[in-house]
Amino acid sequence: MKLETLEKDHYYHIYNRGINGCNIYNSDENKRYFLELTGKYLDKKASISAYCLLDNHYHLLICVNCSTKEITQAFSNLFNAYSKAFNKQNNRTGSLFEKHFKRKKIRSEEYFKTVICYIHRNPFNDWENYKFSSYHYYLKEKSPPQLKIDKTYSLQLFDYLNNFKFVHKGYKNEDLQGFQNLAGLETNNLKGLKDSVSFKENNNMKDKFFKYIHQLQDTITSKLEEVDGKAKFQEDNWDRPEGGGGRTRVIENGAVFEKGGVNISGVHGKLPDSMQKYFGVEDADFFACGLSLVLHPTNPMVPTVHANWRYFEMYDKEGNIVDQWFGGGQDLTPYYLFEDDAKHFHQTCKTACDKHNPEFYPKYKSRCDDYFYNAHRNEGRGIGGLFFDYCKATDEMSMQNWYDFVTEVGDSFLEAYVPIVEKRKTLEYTKPQRDWQEIRRGRYVEFNLVHDKGTLFGLKTNGRIESILMSLPPHVQWVYDHQPEAGSEEEKLINVLQNPVDWI
């Protein structure tokens, strides 16, 4: 049999059994020792997504992180070390494993999900409580002491933990008829493998965008940590009882950022009654995913920034997509106006738009000015940027075209914001200037709680409160009837907020 070549950055199902079907583990201690050696020899050479050890065989689901030669040698060292120890303990000689461990390349996301369920369900009896499987470590949100389990990609594909459990439980033992309880037999025909929502099948746009925001979150948080130089993002994975979940990352008390969050989520289920009335539909299911970020710097010379990129689908009773759209944008909220910063931010937005349609920037800039507007104050929240919503397929723009546009804007965010931060973060400021920043932050809070659709949608769909309200700054002031001095830098800002400027 020709063996798959183990290539870097690809996932593989690795499995083998004892020679002639003999046991390769005679005790729990043997299994613990095998895991210990696996952690030792595969460390940094492979990421382990799942494992299961049965008496006469094992299963591993890994991603290769090194060259073919290095990973092949690592596995050779692992199996040789374990075989020598096992033979010595059991007073035996000769080969322990069948020649050449089996490996199968994971060529699709669906097959990845199938394999991980098969591995965890391999112990037919009481598989949920089986000690030597990675399944229960997913539920406990930790790894075994002998090795680290990389759960990020797995939970992303399953829409987080609650769906992960649901899919596993939908995988019936009778659907394994034709399997033997040993390694070496594979099938794609796992009829009992269910998904938590039927409409997920063949839905490439949803999966593609969901994967994109995971990668974008990593890129943005990594760069922001570098810019701050002190604080690190704290990560919090969460589940939504009705379906889905998210990954919240928050930074606080840094050298640059007083508070900020870069959050991703993917939620699904029955559209709440209040939202059904809003959209004018009945008995609809939905899926929504997106990345939302807000950064509040300590220095009032550095502007607050907000960005959001999202995707939404709605389904009929049969699970068919009846509506889908993209939305998002990015906008700047300064406390002191530097015209060069405003021009740079808007030029970056325009450059991203122009690659797809020269009409996009003026249209979405105008919508941003209209949307991020505190009508009860008769002023904008900031100096704008881009805002677009309900971007649906038309004769001119397919959903793939919209995906390309939205991801272009998402990829432009760091280029739009980071140079401004670097230029202003070391400027000196006074206590009155800090007070002004906190007063203006109060206006930011008012908009988010009174007008913002994303905040209201999250609250009405039982979203995670901590993640929804992470946009609120830690220190805010509401001063009665505060008015800036005539001719001051503060008044200059207010004049622009009351009369939006075309910066380009």
UniProtKB/TrEMBL annotation:
Its EC number is 1.3.3.3. One of its GO terms (biological process) is protoporphyrinogen IX biosynthetic process. It comes from Winogradskyella psychrotolerans RS-3. Belongs to the aerobic coproporphyrinogen-III oxidase family. Residues 7-122 form the Transposase IS200-like domain. GO terms for molecular function: coproporphyrinogen oxidase activity; DNA binding; transposase activity. The keyword ATP-binding does not apply. One of its GO terms (cellular component) is cytoplasm. Transmembrane segments: none annotated. The keyword Oxidoreductase applies. Pathway: Porphyrin-containing compound metabolism; protoporphyrin-IX biosynthesis; protoporphyrinogen-IX from coproporphyrinogen-III (O2 route): step 1/1. Homodimer. Keywords: Heme biosynthesis, Oxidoreductase, Porphyrin biosynthesis. This is coproporphyrinogen oxidase.
